[in-house]
Amino acid sequence: IAKRLEKFKTTIFTQMSNLAIKHGAINLGQGFPNFDGPEFVKEAAIQAIKDGKNQYARGYGVADLNNAIAERFKKDSGLLVDPEKEVTVTSGCTEAIAATMLGLINPGDEVILFAPFYDSYEATLSMVGANIKCITLRPPDFAVPIDELRSTVSRNTRAILINTPHNPTGKMFTKEELNVIASLCIENDVLVFTDEVYDKLAFEMDHICMASLPGMYERTVSMNSLGKTFSLTGWKIGWAIAPPHLTWGVRQAHAFLTFATSTPMQWATSVALRAPDSYYVELKRDYMAKKAILVEGLKAVGFKVFPSSGTYFVVVDHTPFGLENDVAFCEYLIKEIGVVAIPTSVFYLNPEDGKNLVRFTFCKDEETLKSAVERMKARL
Ligand code: GLN
């Protein structure tokens, strides 16, 4: 294996899902719903296949989908973007992130991440050969340490990656935090890459698009996807929105990574994105009910539960149960209790920072969530 990937193991999500199957454990680890996406979107995919929309798509996206993405972005951020010059369709947000890094970052460039961070960011930056600087968000509220941020951002910084709502903590970046980051980026001529795949799962406050803050659109790549919002994580349709001078880099990388994305699924995604607002209202209502079951259950079991404002994740402190670290706790939880969670140490440059924390997901049907809670109550 190439040196740049040597330190990365099988992703923690794959490891944990395999263990769930092996031990017959209830999987509250990997973030994929155990219920299906909406009929009207599945029907649209079937129709597109039957209609012969099966050859290569245009590299940067099926025109109808580029339009639908621009329409939705206008609703969400208030920004009017050109679907032909500023929207690129990718194979999931993970590819959008890779294309953005590969297309806009040079080896040796400094990029700032907030830890804990989704595992693909570090691996992708490692493939680019970037110089990673990390700022740690700490419990209980995972607030941005403003002074540390100020002393880290400089003229040498090329980009900052922001994930809000945030996986794994459920933190949402506040308006004040985004404003400070924005002014530092403008002052030091820094780009911002945003991963906003959980934007429709914002429960406690409104989601804010970094690109919509004054002076930020021209330096921001805003990324999102279909999977979480429509419970279709296996479709792998994502996108990047950026001004033409940044889109150029993203598209060049995308052209040689995957060339184009699945044609019929793009047609179906354009139908999904034109869903009435009531779809999103229901989605949020359903997820709030699931979240209440899991959060109340975890508290009753005896965990210290940190507040989660968005995403379908919640992070807890496992130390009341006396295991030595997050990995040991998760192993015990799978083998002895029959429930899977994700150890968070893999989301940090320094694994020690995550040793007390584990992540549970509530993107499962209510019966599954209740059974997991019952198992933990009875056995932990
Ligand atoms: N994004 C999902 C999670 O955080 C799954 C990611 C994956 O399996 N690569 O659980």
Structural class: alpha/beta
Mean pLDDT: 97
The strand line-up of the biggest sheet is: 2-8-7-6-5-3-4
The radius of gyration over CA amounts to: 20 Å
Which geometry do the CA atoms define?
globular
Protein name: Putative N-succinyldiaminopimelate aminotransferase DapC
GO molecular function: kynurenine-oxoglutarate transaminase activity; pyridoxal phosphate binding
Keywords: Aminotransferase, Pyridoxal phosphate, Transferase
Cofactor: pyridoxal 5'-phosphate
Overall description:
The structure is a single chain. The protein folds into two domains: 3-30 and 278-379, Aspartate Aminotransferase, domain 1; 39-273, Type I PLP-dependent aspartate aminotransferase-like (Major domain) (Aspartate Aminotransferase, domain 2, 3-Layer(aba) Sandwich). It is α/β, with parallel strands linked by helices. It is globular and about 55 Å long. Strands 2-8-7-6-5-3-4 form a seven-stranded mixed sheet, with helices on both faces. The protein has a four-stranded antiparallel sheet with strand order 9-10-13-12. It has a two-stranded parallel ribbon with strand order 1-11. The longest helix is centred in the last third of the chain and has 25 residues, at 277-301. Helix 10 (277-301) runs parallel beside helix 12 (366-379). It is 42% helix and 15% strand. The protein has twelve helices and 13 strands. Glutamine binds at residues 11, 13, 30-31, 167.
